[in-house]
């Protein structure tokens, strides 16, 4: 999973006043706001297709599809193929449950903080200070 918080966004989040869950989600997983919004919509309406999400979010289907790809890469959304009665198929998307997402967020921040602490501790150990 590719989920390293963006330091600039992290600082903005810390300095901002009362960030929303979507703001924190975007920061922790280094995502765009519309990707967080897509995740939150899926929490409320599980099993949506790209077309249904596009209508609900008032966004283009190709943009929603790209958001879903990002969310799947970050393990925040699952995709399931459904066969249609008249032939063909459609994919339905389901958000990772909120409790699991919160745990992923904690794990990501813990790993990031440990990395930063290591960089701090290593500073000055060698002669180059880059």
TrEMBL record:
Residues 25-96 form the Transcription regulator TrmB N-terminal domain. It holds the Pfam family TrmB. Gene3D superfamilies: Winged helix-like DNA-binding domain superfamily/Winged helix DNA-binding domain. This is Helix-turn-helix domain-containing protein.
